[in-house]
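yo

u said u wanted the structure for the complex thing, so here. seqs first:
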Amino acid sequence: MMPLSGDRPRSAVLSVVLVLVVLALALAPFLFPGAKPLNVAAKICIFIALAASYDLLLGYTGVVSFAHTMFYGVGSYGVAIALYSLGPRWDAIGLGLAIALPAAALLALAIGLFSLRVQTIFFAMITLAVASAFAVLASQLSWLTGGEDGRNFRVPEWLQPGTTFIPRDVLGVAVTGRTVTYYLLLVCCAALFLLLLRVVNSPFGRVLQAIRENPFRAEALGYRIVIHRTLATVLAAAVAAAVGALNALWLRYTGPDTALSFAIMLDILLIVVIGGMGTMYGAIVGATLYVLAQNYLQTLMGTVSSAAAEAGLPLLPQLFHPDRWLLWLGILFILSVYFFPTGVVGKLRRPPG
Amino acid sequence: MSSTDTDAGAALPKAPRDIVPLLLPLALALVVLPFIPSGSTWITLTIAGLAMGMMIFVMASGLTLIFGLMDVLNFGHGAFIAIGAYMATLVLVPLSGWMQADSVWLNLAAVIPAIALAVGVTGALGLAFERVVIMPVYGQHLKQILITMGGMIVAEQVLYALFGPQQIPLPLPASWRGSFALGDAAIEKYRVVCVLVGLAVFLAMLAVLNRTKIGLLIRAGVENTEMVEALGYRVTRLFVGVFMAGSALAGLGGVMWGLYREQVNAAMGGELLVLVFIVVIIGGLGSVTGCFIGALLVALATNYAGFLVPKLALITDIALMVAVLLWRPRGLYPVTSR
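structre next:
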């Protein structure tokens, strides 16, 4: 058994960080009781798997896609629409997945075959255009998707917050359907992550990296570039759709803001680049840092902003306004592309000097 | 062996003229004519489409030129559009008295400095952006996309921080308001202004590209950058100049669009970027003429579809792009070997 597919963290610090993150996520319902911390933990899990699937494209294949949220949204909406129209049943979830996953894969196949022939820069532009058209379409087809309001739906009884499994508290925490949903999410995201780790360390993954490094040479060695790139796109899309479905189950809601907005795309991009492109573990580090920053940095910025306002400094209160947190992450993003393109993980693996 | 080796003294063979794409907008306008109930509606829709197309062209032309010459796809182009529009509000909001005055000259006295400021600031920012942000990543597409995207995020956030998150109203000058009648058709004055400005920009670009030495160098640079460099011209200076001009055009387009919508917000750059990309892809990356035709096609199709089948208007851009790419996988006028 090789759960890590022979691709170890290769850095003592990184290993410790990863073990801490995984332990914290695994014990989150008991370590950090309460609704908000559990939401944060669930979001970290979601983004780990989502960013890892994006890393397969960006980091390992060298393809920039702006349609990753579209596939994520397909999964979200698939499960949401199925549960909304069929009621809270397990087979509804199955049906939603059975429709959404192939749909996402087919969509990715079509876009890939269509635009990866020419050059990757074309792919970036076309995915951006298609994704924005898809988002508009989803918000307009309100009979199906609920439009801007999205769809609220009920989940099967086992996953409902009101369901209590053990009459007594365990370690001071009530074990409810919410706990079960969280662990379902955690296990699925972990499985998807390990699957992706397996893929990038397979011969197929090696070919992807060869194409990223030198497409001409890879082609000369007999590997069909378009087919490999397209397959990577399809795989990443299917994983993203699965993650989207999990997120829908967790939120019990799917709408344009949670499933299709371009902000999620930027989140993923920032996570992968800051965490480290082409490392997979970067997704774990990046997602953890990013989601924590998103939820707790804003409080800090608010303090700085009001302190600057009291001191009467110009402009600083606006620049540190909690709504402007993306500004600082954007700057961090640009600097990381320049100065440490392998991200946090790359830095940890190769200490300076 | 090709014949050029033997009769080198003879005149160079003329480049084959490819006029089919040029006829597409006209063909589109004629094809929908029977479906539209009245001729006056058709005229109104066509003028609206042309005006929108011209605005998109002004915004997109800079992007396509920059890509053609420098092989840089600037995902931050949308930020320049938004910055241009915001700069216009800096002038036009304090001068709103002149804007509302019923005098063409007072209106122009407000609008011209606004455009000058927008073009100047976006041009200068373009210079800084090229020198500081893009220069280190020439030739690396992946990093270019990521960095210019990051630049877009930062620019949008800075605009929010400086101007606040609310929409800023940008009313049209009084003399451009309203419409006049052409037969039965009502034609908005500002749309005619847009068409004229867009045509002027297009003709000026064609004149510069085809009739001046700078234009010759740019066209040669699009074809083969190394060769131009080897002949002793400083391609980097050309790069900077084109980048500034392209950014300034984005700023001009931003002002036009802001006046058209009569409001400005920081998210407009990102929204327009998608449209600009579609136009540039349809036209063929790097081609100014292709970009012009692409812009007209997209805008006309959107307007006609919005009238005939409103639901369909949401995806006309994409459908058009797919159709064009199925016919010509590299766009209407593919430029360079890239």
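Residues 281-310 of chain A form the longest helix (30 residues). Chain A touches chain B through 41 residues (CB under 8 Å).
cya
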